């Protein structure tokens, strides 16, 4: 009797696995999943104070925490467009984040330039800086660890430069001007609000835009060439793909959108300093969501951010032990690399593999669930 029950369970699991695979094979699966994710995020802050079964989500999660999570989801998505798609692992994206922040606040404080215009100017400067890094590194064929160290060096160069020159704010940085100094009042035009909720929706729009660009790139010929470079750059070059050109495109686009998040950071907090936007740990914050969620996937950086950031914030708030959040980061990285190197988005496929390995069900369909979700 138990054997018949086990066979029935296996049949049901196989049907579920087949339906899941068929769904993921459709062109609309990723846009549909993203629509569901962003629809949930749209109403999420409005549900924090609702009680169900005596429990309120707001007890553990705040709008501020959600904003920080969306910031790192945005940077993770931007980082993924270069490192995840072309395989050029960057450990220096703090350079672009900081240029976006300083480009916005420096122009605002010294020249009264509207922060929205300053954001695009800062993002353009960051894109050009990324292009310079790419030209210098890719021309000399730096790859792997050497490229990662080179990007870190370029980020550290900016940190020491902004720390040294008083014209750039020096070590004390800049304080955010009040809206009346360059605009009429708080609001969207001033990029400043008198409550945190509008900031949430601004960064959510940023994330939607960056995710849309990432999805378009991945499903285009450009994305096909980028992934060919990631899998085997020499083979891609041998079949006529201009690898140098597409790597430059990847780093420039990635730098441009990373700077958006930096600009938001500058307008969200009251002050910025080199140590807060160029710090080496900013590089970790940027790349961690994509690594945990799934490198080279569109959904991965978003999922990874909502695993890593809330967990570290909760630990930081409720356990009075300095540095524990960094330990959590390290444990997460070790766990993902060792047990799920393709990230959290590969877990649905891994779930069936684990059941099969433990003899809990018999697989009767071809096993090709190793490819992570987009």
UniProtKB/TrEMBL annotation:
One Gene Ontology MF term: branched-chain amino acid transmembrane transporter activity
Topology relative to the membrane: Multi-pass membrane protein
Keywords assigned by UniProt, alphabetized: Cell membrane, Membrane, Transmembrane, Transmembrane helix
GO cellular component: plasma membrane
Transmembrane regions: 25-44, 50-73, 85-110, 116-138, 145-162, 199-217, 248-266, 286-311, 323-341
Source taxon at top rank: Archaea
Protein name (database record): Amino acid/amide ABC transporter membrane protein 2, HAAT family
Organism of provenance: Natronorubrum thiooxidans
């Amino acid at each position: 009797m138990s054997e018949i029950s086990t066979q029935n369970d296996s049949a049901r699991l196989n049907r579920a696995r087949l339906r899941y695979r068929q769904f993921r094979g459709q062109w609309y699966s990723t846009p549909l999943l993203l629509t569901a994710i962003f629809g949930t995020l749209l109403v999420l802050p409005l549900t924090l104070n609702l009680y169900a079964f005596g429990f309120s989500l707001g007890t553990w999660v705040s709008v501020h925490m959600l904003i920080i999570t969306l910031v790192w989801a945005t940077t993770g998505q931007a980082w993924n467009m270069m490192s995840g798609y072309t395989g050029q692992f960057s450990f220096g994206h703090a350079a672009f984040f900081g240029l976006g922040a300083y480009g916005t606040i420096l122009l605002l404080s010294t020249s009264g330039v509207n922060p929205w215009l300053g954001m695009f100017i800062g993002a353009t400067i960051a894109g050009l800086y990324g292009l310079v890094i790419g030209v210098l590194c890719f021309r000399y064929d730096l790859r792997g660890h050497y490229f990662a160290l080179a990007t870190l060096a370029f980020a550290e160069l900016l940190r020491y430069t902004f720390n040294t020159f008083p014209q750039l704010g020096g070590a004390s940085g800049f304080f955010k001007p009040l809206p009346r100094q360059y605009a009429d009042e708080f609001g969207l035009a001033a990029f400043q609000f008198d409550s945190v909720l509008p900031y949430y929706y601004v960064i959510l729009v940023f994330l939607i835009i960056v995710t849309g660009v990432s999805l378009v790139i991945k499903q285009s010929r450009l994305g096909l060439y980028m992934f060919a470079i990631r899998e085997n750059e020499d083979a891609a070059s041998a079949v006529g793909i201009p690898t140098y050109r597409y790597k430059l495109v990847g780093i420039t686009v990635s730098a441009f959108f990373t700077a958006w998040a930096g600009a938001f950071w500058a307008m969200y907090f009251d002050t910025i300093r080199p140590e807060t936007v160029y710090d080496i740990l900013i590089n970790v914050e940027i790349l961690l969501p994509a690594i945990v969620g799934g490198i080279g996937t569109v959904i991965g950086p978003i999922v990874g951010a909502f695993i890593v950031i809330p967990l570290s914030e909760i630990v930081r708030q409720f356990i009075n032990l300095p540095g524990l959040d960094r330990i959590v980061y390290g444990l997460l990285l070790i766990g993902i690399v060792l047990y799920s190197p393709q990230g959290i988005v590969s877990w649905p496929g891994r779930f069936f593999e684990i059941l099969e390995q433990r003899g809990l069900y018999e697989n009767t369909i071809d096993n090709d669930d190793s490819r992570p979700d987009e």
